[in-house]
C-alpha cells in the first residue's frame, strides 16, 4: 500500500515539475519576439531587417541612451537581429519558436510520436531506410508544413514567390529514390528565393486533402494560391524547369536597341521604375525571373542580352562591363540611371536590397490604396512620423509645366520623413473632394498630410496660393515643410479619406477570360495526366448533361407520332399562305399518295363563302406554315358534296357526331351544311381529324333581327313558330355568320401539332367517282 502511495506521489511530482518547465519555456518564448522588438512584420525582407536594426541600435546604444533599460534593450535588439538575419535561424524560430539552432530540428513537436502500452518510443531507435520520421533529413524537418501554416503563411506568400512542396509519408518505399534528387533541387532553388515545403501525409492528412494530393510521393507547386502538380520524371533539371514554368509569362521583357526607348518611357503609364539587367546568357536567369515576380507590383523589368548585335548601342551608351552582370534602375529620368549595381556573383540578398531601395519613383502617382498605404503609412510612434506632400493635378497639357516643376522639387528632396506624390483629380475624385471640400481652389493644389489611422483619418494643411510650378510656389512649399519640421501642429485640418480607386484594375471581361483560361488549362492538365480523382465531379457533370441531351434527342426521334406526325412548327418563311384546290387532278398527289408523315389541311367552302373563309383560314394557319409537313387545300362543297358525305360515312365516329346535328335539320327537310369544316387528312396512315364550326357567343348581329321579329309579332304566336326557332338554334352552323365559323381554328391547329386531337380512321379513301358535281 505504501509503495503505491509513494509511486503516485512520485508521478504527481513529476507531472507538476514537467508542467512548470513547460510553462517557463512557453513564457520565455512568448516574451521574446524578435519581430516585435525590431518593429517589423513577419514578411519583412533582409533589407528591412537590417534597416530596422541599424536604427534601433543607434537609438538604444548604451553610450548614447542613458536610460536604465537601454543596455538590456540593446542586447535584445542584437539577439533579434542575429536570429532574423540568418535564414536558417529565422526559419527555425518561425516554425518551432526555437532560438538555438544547435537543437536538432526533428526534435520538435514530433520527436516522440509512437505510444504503446504506456511508453513513448524515440523513432530514431528504429532506423529503417523507408522514409520514416527517424531517418528524415534535417532539411525536410526544417520545411515541414502544417495546415494552419499553409493557409495563413504559404498561400499569401505564394503571390510573391513560388513554392515547391513534396508530399511524403512514413514507410514510403518510393520516397527513397526521390529524396536525393529532391535535396539537390532544394539546394539549388532555395537560395534563389523559391519556397520549399514538405507535407507528411501520416500527420497532415487534412493538408494533403486540401492540396489534392492522394499519392506519395508527389511534388507540386504553388503560385498565386494555385496548386499545380509535377508529372514528369524526377530529375533536378525537370524540377528547376517546373518552377520556371510556374511563373507568369511576360514578367521580363527582352530589350534591344529598337525598343529600349519605348520600354523606359512607359514609366508614366505604369507608374513604376524600370530595371535593366545586362548579362551574357541568352535566356533570362531564373534568379532574375523570381525577383521580377516578387516585385512585379512595384518595378518593371527588362533584360538585355549582351551577346546580341542589336544591343551594342545600349552597351556603349551606359558603358556596361561585359564581364559581370550589371543592373540599372531608371525612374523619371530615362537618360541617366537613378542607381546602378555590378557584381560577378549577383546574389539574391544583394538584388533584394537594391530593388527595395528603388521600389518607387521620385514622385509616384497614387493609383490604388496599396500604394497609398506604403507611401504614406499610418503614424505609429512620434519618431516615425511620415508626411506626404500631395499634388492634386490633372492629365491635360496645361498641367504639364506644374507637374514637371513638382517633380524637380521631389528629385532634390533629402528628408526621409517626407514623400512627394501626386494624384489625378479625374481618376480619384472622392479623395480630392475630401481634401478640397469647403475651399475655393481648383487643381493644381498642394496638400501636406499625415495619416493617423487605418480607417482613413488624416490631418492636413493646404499650401496657400495653389501650385503653378513657379519659384515663388517652390519657396512657399519649402517654408511650410520647414515649419512642419519644427511644429507638427500646423496641420490644423482633419478629414476621413475614402479608399482609393484602383486605376489599374482590369476589366471584368478580361478577368473572366483569364479565369476561364486558367480553369481550362487545369482541366486539360488533369486529363493529360490522369488525375481522375479530382476530375470525377466534372466528368460526372459532363456525362450527365450528355446523357440528358442524348436521351431527349432519342425520345424525340423515336416518339410515336400522333395526329400531327410532324415536328414542331418552325417560323414562317413566306409572308403568304399557299392554298390549292382539291380536285380530281390534285386528288391523288395531295391525298392518296401523300408522303408519310405529311398532313393535308382541307377547308370546306362554297362559292358564296369562298373569299371570306379563305381569308379567315389564311390568318388562322399562317403561324403554322413554317412546318415542312403541312399542306393546305380547300374543297368546294357545291362541286364535291357527295365525296364529303362518303368520307364521313367511312369514318363511323365522325358520322355519329354528324348525325346528331342532322337530327334537327332532317325534320325540316334541310341538307347537312359542311361549310367551314376543316379536315386534317393523313393520306399514308388513312385517318383524319375533324374541325367543325363552334358557336363562340360572338354572333350578336343576328339577334336584332330576331328581337325585331319578336317585337312585331304578338305574344300569342303559335307553338309551331317556337318549335321552329328551337330547331334552328340547335343547328348553330346554319345561323352563324360566315366570318365566325373559323374563330377557334387556331386552337385546333395547336392541338393538331401537339398530337392530342382524336383520329378517325377510314379503311380506304373514297374513289374518284365520289368526287362529282352536284346537279
TrEMBL record:
<dbReference type="InterPro" id="IPR013766">
    <property type="entry name" value="Thioredoxin_domain"/>
</dbReference>
<dbReference type="InterPro" id="IPR036249">
    <property type="entry name" value="Thioredoxin-like_sf"/>
</dbReference>
<protein>
    <recommendedName>
        <fullName>J domain-containing protein</fullName>
    </recommendedName>
</protein>
<feature type="region of interest" description="Disordered">
    <location>
        <begin position="700"/>
        <end position="731"/>
    </location>
</feature>
<dbReference type="InterPro" id="IPR001623">
    <property type="entry name" value="DnaJ_domain"/>
</dbReference>
<feature type="domain" description="J">
    <location>
        <begin position="33"/>
        <end position="97"/>
    </location>
</feature>
<keyword id="KW-1133">Transmembrane helix</keyword>
<feature type="signal peptide">
    <location>
        <begin position="1"/>
        <end position="27"/>
    </location>
</feature>
<dbReference type="Pfam" id="PF00226">
    <property type="entry name" value="DnaJ"/>
</dbReference>
<keyword id="KW-0472">Membrane</keyword>
<dbReference type="InterPro" id="IPR043361">
    <property type="entry name" value="DNAJC16_TRX"/>
</dbReference>
<dbReference type="Pfam" id="PF00085">
    <property type="entry name" value="Thioredoxin"/>
</dbReference>
<keyword id="KW-0732">Signal</keyword>
<keyword id="KW-0812">Transmembrane</keyword>
<dbReference type="InterPro" id="IPR052448">
    <property type="entry name" value="DnaJ_C16_autophagy_reg"/>
</dbReference>
<dbReference type="InterPro" id="IPR036869">
    <property type="entry name" value="J_dom_sf"/>
</dbReference>
<feature type="transmembrane region" description="Helical">
    <location>
        <begin position="538"/>
        <end position="558"/>
    </location>
</feature>
Amino acid at each position: 500500500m505504501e509503495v503505491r502511495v509513494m509511486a503516485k506521489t512520485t508521478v504527481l511530482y513529476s507531472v507538476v515539475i514537467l508542467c512548470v518547465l513547460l510553462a517557463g519555456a512557453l513564457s520565455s518564448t512568448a516574451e521574446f519576439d524578435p519581430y516585435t522588438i525590431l518593429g517589423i512584420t513577419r514578411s519583412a525582407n533582409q533589407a528591412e531587417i537590417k534597416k530596422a536594426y541599424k536604427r534601433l541600435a543607434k537609438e538604444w546604444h548604451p553610450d548614447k541612451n542613458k536610460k536604465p533599460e537601454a543596455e538590456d534593450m540593446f542586447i535584445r535588439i542584437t539577439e533579434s537581429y542575429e536570429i532574423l538575419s540568418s535564414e536558417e535561424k529565422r526559419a527555425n524560430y518561425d516554425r518551432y519558436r526555437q532560438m538555438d539552432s544547435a537543437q536538432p530540428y526533428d526534435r520538435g513537436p514530433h520527436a516522440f510520436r509512437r505510444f504503446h502500452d504506456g511508453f513513448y518510443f524515440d523513432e530514431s531507435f528504429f532506423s529503417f531506410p523507408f522514409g520514416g520520421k527517424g531517418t528524415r533529413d534535417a532539411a525536410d524537418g526544417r520545411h515541414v508544413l502544417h495546415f494552419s501554416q499553409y493557409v495563413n503563411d504559404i498561400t499569401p506568400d505564394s503571390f510573391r514567390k513560388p513554392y515547391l512542396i513534396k508530399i511524403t509519408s512514413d514507410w514510403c518505399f518510393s520516397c527513397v529514390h526521390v529524396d536525393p534528387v529532391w535535396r539537390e533541387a532544394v539546394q539549388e532553388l532555395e537560395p534563389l528565393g523559391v519556397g520549399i515545403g514538405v507535407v507528411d501525409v501520416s500527420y497532415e492528412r487534412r493538408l494533403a486533402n486540401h492540396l489534392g494530393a492522394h499519392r506519395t510521393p508527389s511534388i507540386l507547386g504553388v503560385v498565386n494560391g494555385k496548386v499545380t502538380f509535377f508529372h514528369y520524371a524526377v530529375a533536378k533539371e525537370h524540377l528547376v524547369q517546373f518552377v520556371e514554368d510556374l511563373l507568369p509569362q511576360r514578367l521580363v521583357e527582352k530589350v534591344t536597341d529598337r525598343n529600349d526607348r519605348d520600354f523606359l518611357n512607359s514609366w508614366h503609364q505604369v507608374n513604376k521604375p524600370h530595371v535593366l539587367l545586362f548579362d551574357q546568357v541568352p535566356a533570362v536567369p531564373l534568379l532574375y525571373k523570381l525577383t521580377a515576380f516578387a516585385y512585379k507590383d512595384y518595378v518593371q523589368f527588362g533584360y538585355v542580352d549582351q551577346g546580341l548585335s542589336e544591343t551594342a548601342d545600349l552597351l556603349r551608351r551606359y558603358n556596361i562591363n561585359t564581364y559581370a552582370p550589371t543592373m540599372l534602375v531608371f525612374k523619371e529620368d530615362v537618360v541617366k540611371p537613378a542607381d546602378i549595381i555590378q557584381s560577378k556573383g549577383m546574389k539574391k540578398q544583394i538584388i533584394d536590397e537594391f530593388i527595395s531601395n528603388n521600389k518607387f519613383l521620385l514622385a509616384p502617382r497614387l493609383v490604388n490604396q496599396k500604394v497609398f498605404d506604403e507611401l504614406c503609412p499610418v503614424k505609429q510612434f512620434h519618431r516615425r512620423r511620415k508626411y506626404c506632400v500631395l499634388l492634386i493635378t490633372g492629365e491635360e497639357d496645361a498641367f504639364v509645366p506644374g507637374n514637371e516643376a513638382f517633380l524637380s522639387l521631389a528629385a532634390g528632396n533629402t528628408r526621409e520623413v517626407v514623400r512627394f506624390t501626386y494624384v489625378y483629380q479625374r481618376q480619384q475624385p472622392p479623395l480630392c473632394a475630401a481634401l478640397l471640400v469647403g475651399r475655393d481652389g481648383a487643381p493644381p493644389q498642394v496638400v501636406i498630410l499625415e495619416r493617423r489611422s487605418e480607417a482613413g483619418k488624416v490631418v492636413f494643411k493646404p499650401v496657400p496660393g495653389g501650385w503653378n510650378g513657379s519659384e515663388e510656389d517652390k519657396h512657399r512649399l519649402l517654408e511650410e515643410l520647414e515649419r512642419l519640421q519644427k511644429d507638427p501642429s500646423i496641420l490644423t485640418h482633419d478629414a476621413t479619406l475614402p479608399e482609393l480607386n484602383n486605376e489599374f484594375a482590369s476589366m471584368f471581361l478580361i478577368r473572366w477570360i483569364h479565369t476561364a483560361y486558367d480553369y481550362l488549362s487545369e482541366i486539360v492538365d488533369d486529363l493529360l495526366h490522369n488525375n481522375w480523382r479530382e476530375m470525377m465531379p466534372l466528368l460526372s457533370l459532363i456525362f450527365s448533361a450528355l446523357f440528358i441531351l442524348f436521351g431527349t434527342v432519342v425520345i424525340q426521334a423515336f416518339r410515336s407520332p400522333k395526329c400531327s406526325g410532324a415536328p414542331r412548327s418552325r417560323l414562317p418563311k413566306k409572308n403568304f399562305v399557299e392554298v390549292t384546290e382539291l380536285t380530281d387532278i390534285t386528288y391523288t398527289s395531295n391525298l392518296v399518295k401523300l408522303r408519310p408523315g405529311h398532313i393535308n389541311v382541307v377547308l370546306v367552302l362554297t362559292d358564296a363563302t369562298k373569299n371570306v373563309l379563305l381569308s379567315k383560314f389564311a390568318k388562322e394557319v399562317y403561324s403554322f406554315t413554317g412546318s415542312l409537313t403541312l399542306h393546305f387545300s380547300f374543297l368546294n362543297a357545291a362541286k364535291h358534296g357527295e365525296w364529303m358525305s362518303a368520307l364521313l360515312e367511312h369514318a363511323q365516329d365522325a358520322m355519329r357526331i354528324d348525325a346528331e346535328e342532322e337530327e334537327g335539320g332532317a325534320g325540316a327537310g334541310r341538307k347537312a351544311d359542311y361549310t367551314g369544316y376543316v379536315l386534317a387528312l393523313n393520306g399514308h396512315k388513312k385517318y383524319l381529324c375533324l374541325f367543325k364550326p363552334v358557336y363562340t357567343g360572338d354572333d350578336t348581329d343576328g339577334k336584332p333581327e330576331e328581337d325585331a321579329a319578336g317585337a312585331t309579332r304578338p305574344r300569342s304566336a303559335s307553338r309551331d313558330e317556337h318549335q321552329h326557332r328551337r330547331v334552328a338554334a340547335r343547328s348553330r352552323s346554319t345561323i352563324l355568320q360566315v366570318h365566325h365559323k373559323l374563330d377557334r381554328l387556331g386552337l385546333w391547329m395547336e392541338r393538331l401539332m401537339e398530337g392530342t386531337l382524336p383520329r378517325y380512321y377510314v379503311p380506304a379513301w373514297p374513289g374518284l367517282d365520289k368526287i362529282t358535281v352536284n346537279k
